[in-house]
Write the structure tokens for this entry.
Amino acid sequence: MKAIHNASAVALTIALLAPNASAEGKLSLFHWFEYIPQEMLDRFTAESGIEVTMDTYDSNEAMLATLKAGSMGTYDLSFPGDYMVQIMSDEGMLDTIADGELKNKANIMPEWLEVPYDMGRKSSIPYQWGTTSFSVNRDVYTGDISSTDILFDPPAELAGKINMLDSQGEVLALAAMHLGIPQCTTDRDQLKALDAQLQTSKQHWASFNSDTAKEVLVSGDAAAGMIYNGFSAKGRLEGANIEYAYPDQGVIAWMDNAVLLKDAPNRESALKFMDFLLEPKNIAELTNWAQYSAGVIGADEFLTAELRATPENNKPADSGPAVFVEACSQEVQAVYDKIWTNLKK
Amino acid sequence: MAGGAASGGKAQTDTYKEARTLLLLPSWLVLGFFVLIPVFMMLIYSFLTKEFRGGVIWEFSLAAYDQFFFDRGLFGDDAPSIEWTYINIFWRSIWQAGAATIFALLIGFPTAYFIATRPPNSRQMWVFLVTIPYWVNLLIRTVSMKFLLRDQGPLNDFLMGIGIVDSPIHIINTDFAVQLGLFYSYLPFMVLPIYAAVERYNFSLSEAAADLYASKWQTLRRVLLPAVKPGVIAGCILVFVPSLGSFLAPDLLGGAKNFMIGSLIEEQFKGNAGNWPFGAAASMILLSLVLIVLMLSARQQNKGEGV
Amino acid sequence: MAQAGEDIKNYPGFMPITLFCLVVLYAPLLVVMIYSFNESKSITVWQGLSFKWYVDVFVGPESAKFKEAAINSFSIAIVAALAATAIATSAATGMLRGGSFRGRGFSFGLINLPLIVPEIVTAVATLIFFSAIDFERGYLTILVAHIAFCIPFAYMPIAARMQGIEDTYEQAAMDLYANKTQAFRLVLFPLMLPGIVSGFILAFIISLDDFIITNFVKGAGIETLPTAIFGAVKQGIKPNIMAISTMLLAVSIVMVTISYFVGKSGDKLKQPPGEK
């Protein structure tokens, strides 16, 4: 079908279209924004002859929504976070990788092989893992940042200059940690407290943005912001005097994964790309760029010394726990949706 | 729709009467198939049951409209009361779009009038000047607006440089920024229809009024304005309607802090919520709102033409 | 009286407002143009004149993506505008030269439907429709969606032009034994041409500029310039985006200038009221 589209495009616009003659194979990725360097895709194309196209999204939920709204069967791989792998698997959106189909599967670190959301890695491979909390511009605020109060009950210097991620799952999870209540709780008083907390905190927040989370901190448009650890490290390397916090209440941990989508139009290419990502050298190159952590044996030796030493990647031993976001039941999710709408109404 | 009032007029001749159906058929087919049927489907979807995390179940349900109009508490089992959340979102959108329309009218009317009263051969050049920015991608214009309005952006640099303000004015991520963005996005839509109306205006009417000792401002208000009212209404609609459903300006300039109708609808299909029937219902309510505005203005338009 | 006549037209304050209006319209574009020549990667610091971002657009790491997006955008815009203009010309002839008939109001409403329905609603509705009929999203879905919503934009100037053409021209041709097809081809069509050109250009620009609908109906890996730019600017404006914008602005100015001169040559025949 895709070929037909391309053919019609060529036919319709002979004068303008240079036909893609050399394509040996194709690969269609649905990926997070700014999460893989173009150079790496180019190298994959050079090595395999497979042409890669990529669309981007800015939250797990947006990816799910787009796929459910008729995009299944058009992408080969997407890169959901842990809880979203579970959801997609429950929705029947993932294909199963048979034993032996991935020749580099043995490279997956044991602790990332038996993961609750995909036991034995039947449909997914680890991509990058990291944490989400917040960063503070140290030129603006020099005080203690070891509490989630920075976001939810900020000091005067930061109030009104805070950017939040535009991601329901992570904002609500962090708010729950701030209040010390369990995620996806069914306790009505706790849910009410969560709603009330967000209502009070909202007055201190300037914007909701995920894809500009780094940019607003670098440009100084925001003085503090909820952000992923590696994204913050990149911001710091771009010259912003920002410090990533590991608050006492804890941080959100996440593992993004490459998943094989059901009805993938280029299944073979997708598996090749997964193997490519499981090569220690390749995933290390990606990790050096993205500034998070890999889940592949042998990748460490290719990591730069700077990356291994970044404060963003080294969680202090005395900081709070790292907690994965949970997928809530339909009933709790309905309440979460309400709270989120209340927050943005 | 500015041209709509004009081109919707009566057919002048029936030269091609026999071929009429054939001539109209392509437009009926394309628009019927790719606009009318989809909108109709959306109407149907708004009465279906939502599927968890996106999609619909083919069972009749009023849940989407119920969610829009009735508040049943955080857990959905309180006694229903009026739900203000979405009404407020709609009201905010109306207010933002309305403010943008008023800004556009305040700036656009004098501009259109000024252009229309230039010598005929230089008018084209002025119109040209006003329309060029409109040919630049809306996205880029909105983003550059954001860049311009930043706390450390060129506007604040300029204002502080000439000493009007001491510290940067905080504009970005406020309602005002959204209104400015909408105003800026659609300003030419206000200028052009008013320009067309003023250009057709017979200035001997103003002269007659002046001969009767009407002051200039009285002439403007009592003679000119009623005469060019259709152009003004067309301009207001062309700014108001697209502003109402816009989500670029709220997202980029308003910091995505508050839902507007456009972002609320988008959220249901591409964001967290994944509630298709609700998104469809909100779309239908928005469409009804637009149709009401159009009908009201059509009545005004007819009254205006009666004068 | 001529002096008084001029005076009665002028209102103090209107000219400054007009100039203010132009400043407001052009300031953001000027910023884009200036910073597209900035040596620095930062958008906040000026580090001297440079063309490197223009080079970057053509040979930089993202050049392949933008080239493909530009090809998609322009090919879709050309085909969509051609189709929309043909459909609109045909529809305008039917509407304005077809006598009165039942359903004329409905037909007029249908033609203008894309202007009445807010774009976000059209976008979502089209998405639902394509996904319901299992029309795989890609180049073709963008193209048909663009053809549909470009029709009213092409129709407006064409119909306005046609209304200004007296039917005596065709009548005269037919009195001279031209059949109806000949009358259309040899008389009406040349007279309508300025309107048709304006309609084509309007439709072309509308298609080239569209983001919302395209974003909803595009398929995997297919980008148009606006969606590619959106993807890039969401993470902060980069100078190469400003360079692309400046070039697009130049293209647009050329297009508008062409339509201006074509319109001018058409004016010699007859200036229909209200047409620009």
Q: What stands out?
A: Chain A has 13 helices and twelve strands. Residues 1-23 of chain A have pLDDT under 50 and may be disordered. The radius of gyration of chain A is 21 Å. Residues 12-129+255-309 of chain A form a domain with the D-Maltodextrin-Binding Protein; domain 2 fold (CATH 3.40.190.10).
